[in-house]
Design goal:
globular; 1 helix; about 35% strand; 7 strands; mainly beta; 7-stranded antiparallel β-sheet
Length: about 100
């Protein structure tokens, strides 16, 4: 697992609306039993700075930054891709959530 990797959501109850999870936890904390993620949701509503959009596996999803959470590593599905090239945009969304700037 690596920071900014995208994983499939294997939760049957939520995977239609939230098909992917973005791992944002720094790799130096790899020994923890949980990872901090931001859901990637199917949504037409978004705030550009808070909810940047991405197309993953042909699905347009928005980063649901306000739903940041820590989840057990065993509930991650397969790795789909990496968004490490979008690092600044993702960190900007987290900063906007926390600081409003």
């Amino acid at each position: 697992m690596a920071q900014f990797d995208v994983y499939e959501n294997i939760n049957e109850k939520t995977k239609v609306q939230t098909p992917f999870l973005l791992d944002i936890q720094n790799d130096i904390l790899k020994n923890l039993s949980t990872r901090v993620v931001i859901p990637l949701v199917v949504s037409s509503k978004s705030i550009n700075l808070l909810n940047p959009k991405y197309t993953i596996s042909g699905i347009t999803v928005a980063l649901s930054t306000a739903e940041i959470a820590s989840i057990p590593m065993e509930i991650f599905g397969n790795k789909i891709c990496s968004l490490k090239d979008k690092r600044e945009e993702i960190i900007g969304a987290i900063d906007f959530l926390v600081t409003g700037f």
